[in-house]
Write a structure and sequence with these properties.
590 residues, mainly beta, Jelly Rolls, eight-stranded antiparallel beta sheet, 2 helices, 2% helix
Length: 590
């Protein structure tokens, strides 16, 4: 109030004039002088032993003063004569490495800015005189920015430093990108405005605990989160993503039977939760792995061992024809893991192929029944069915049990092989037998059995013109020759003939025993219809004297039901021949 009264007392003084700025020791408080200077006409007023200048180009000088306090002068205060686009006129203060003190508030109106002038050794300081930080602004207390306004730095960093924290600070550099908390040169907390995220760069230093609820606390120390009691619930509106950057996400516990990974669904519908393996990053290729589940434990030597696994893989990656493969494997004898069950997408839609077992000695055990909906069982080698009980094959009514060979007819080759019906039907052997008595000595004659003989029912009549021994030749027989044969009851093959008998005379002789086949003789004995007979076999008997003989021939002659087999003799040479015995023909049913 005393200073104001003093100014009021001097208000009647005249305004002095002159040239050049007044000297610091010139004039008294309250004195006013108008001077012409190199920067124009200026008005000087002396107050508290300091000169204050106004006018001219807008430069306000503070001539004189101490190192820490200076009056305004043309060298340190300047207002531009032109306005900057959108901001009006600028005022520049330069104290030449000395302090500018303000007893009250510094107000920056809306639309105005406080900027550095680009000089690297100059800056704007608030409330500190013990630290030199060129080019930066310092705040000892809170900095308040009015709602709707922003704080700008066009160059350098904005740093807020607090007493008692050591070399700790908050730095924004640049303002629209990163906010960092720095202690002793190490960045501990970083807010990345561009990517909208917060990073703990070094450590999260928490003095004490973080309270989770009324009675539970969470302690963070040595890369560990410890919840004192109860459960820890993460409740988010979106997804929870844990990026381990090439590491592992591990759930561990020392409690017996734990830990458990539970996927719980509480929705009121038919669906449930999902454990999903997703493989992305490149175009899929055959045999790619898309998911793996490993079952690892220790062996007796405390070595970590993989005992089982489940692999999900790509079988066919072709777009529109995608097929997958699921492999289940276990450690096999020597610790090496082998796949024992493979499910593969088949070559047709809605088809899945299954491969079971590994190695020729692997064993697949089915405790109950085996239900096969398909129609084929294949084996790479021999297929053996070993049972301690009966083997029962039960088919539906009117259905057959078929055995084929390479999709064709199966023919058994050894005695211990199974015999199918078609083979059994065609390989039933029967025999028909006839007795014979032959005692003629006319050469170049073939004798057939005489059906009219009264004296000797097995006596043989001659066919005068036949003495052929070439297999395949034919003759024509009629009922007038009074010959007869053995009728065949079914379609068959004549598989062989056997002659058994003896010659009662003691003379050298040669005869042929023969087998002929053809149509049957008509039942009407008076018929003269001719029957064609074909020679199938001819066996030579030489010098059979007072002894038995036993001769046979294998044949393969197809015959039809109703045809006849005609046994015959042909005399060649010798005297007093008398042959008697039996002839047997083997038939195989067709």
């Amino acid at each position: 109030m005393r200073d104001l009264r003093k100014l009021h007392h001097l208000k009647g003084r005249r305004i002095q004039t002159g040239s050049g700025p007044p000297r610091p020791n010139e004039g008294e408080d309250g004195e006013i002088t108008l001077r012409t200077t190199s920067s124009g006409l200026r008005l000087f007023i002396k107050f508290k032993n300091k000169w204050y200048a106004f006018g001219g180009t807008g430069v306000l000088g503070v001539p004189g003063g101490s190192d820490t306090e200076e009056v305004l002068s043309a060298s340190n205060l300047q207002t531009s004569t032109t306005s900057t686009s959108g901001r009006g006129r600028e005022t520049i203060i330069n104290t030449k490495n000395k302090n500018l003190e303000m007893a009250g508030n510094l107000q920056v109106n809306k639309g105005s800015f406080i900027n550095r002038d680009g000089v690297s050794d100059q800056g704007l300081y608030f409330g500190r005189d013990d630290v030199a930080k060129p080019g930066q602004a310092y705040f000892d207390d809170d900095v308040f920015i009015q709602k709707g306004y922003k704080l700008y730095l066009t160059d350098g960093n904005l740093q807020a430093e607090a007493d008692g924290i050591g070399n700790a600070s908050w730095i924004i550099a640049p303002l629209d990108t990163v906010v960092q908390h720095v202690v002793d040169g190490n960045v501990y907390l970083e807010l990345d405005v561009t990517n909208t995220r917060v990073r703990l760069k070094q450590k999260a230093l928490i003095d004490g605990t973080v309270q989770l609820g009324a009675n539970a606390y969470m302690t963070l120390s040595d890369n560990e989160i410890d919840v004192s009691s109860g459960d820890l619930t993460l409740d988010v509106a979106g997804d929870i993503i844990a990026d381990v950057a090439g590491g592992q996400f591990t759930i561990k516990d020392t409690t017996i039977g734990d830990p458990d990974l539970v996927i719980e669904s509480n929705s009121n519908d038919a669906l449930a939760g999902t454990l999903s393996f997703k493989k992305e990053g490149r175009a899929g290729a055959a045999d790619d792995y898309v998911g793996m589940v490993l079952f690892n434990g220790e062996d007796a030597g405390n070595n970590l061992q993989n005992y089982a696994y489940i692999y999900g893989r790509v079988d066919v990656p072709t777009e529109g024809e995608e097929g997958g493969r699921l492999e289940l494997g276990v450690a096999s004898h020597d610790g090496g893991a082998e796949t024992g069950l493979i499910l593969t997408g088949g070559s047709d839609d809605a088809e899945v192929d299954v491969a079971i077992g590994k190695g020729a000695n692997s064993m697949t055990t089915i405790a109950g029944d085996l239900d096969i909906d398909g129609s084929s069982i294949t084996s790479a080698g021999n297929l053996e069915i070993d049972t301690t009980g009966h083997l029962n094959i039960n088919v539906a009514s009117t259905k057959n049990i078929l055995i084929t060979e390479n999709t064709g007819t199966y023919t058994p080759a050894t005695d211990d092989e199974i015999v199918p019906k078609h083979y059994l039907d065609t390989h039933q052997l029967h025999s028909i037998q006839d007795r014979f008595y032959f005692d003629v000595e006319t050469t170049s004659r073939t004798y057939f059995r005489d059906i009219d003989s009264i004296s000797y029912e097995n006596k043989w009549d001659a066919y005068d013109s036949e003495d052929d021994t070439v297999v395949g030749n034919t003759i024509s027989l009629t009922t007038t020759i009074a010959s007869a044969g053995l009728i065949v009851p079914y379609d068959c093959k004549l598989k062989g003939v056997r002659w058994v008998g003896n010659n009662t005379t003691n003379y050298d002789n040669v005869v042929y025993v023969q087998t002929w086949t053809g149509a049957s003789i008509p039942h009407d004995t008076g018929s003269t219809t001719a029957v064609t007979a074909t020679l199938r076999d001819s066996i030579t008997l030489t010098n059979i004297k007072r002894k038995y003989f036993h001769v046979n021939t294998a044949l393969d002659v197809s015959m039809s039901a109703g045809q006849m087999i005609y046994p015959a003799f042909q005399y060649v040479s010798g005297t007093a021949v008398t042959y008697s015995g039996s002839v047997v023909f083997s038939l195989e049913r067709a």
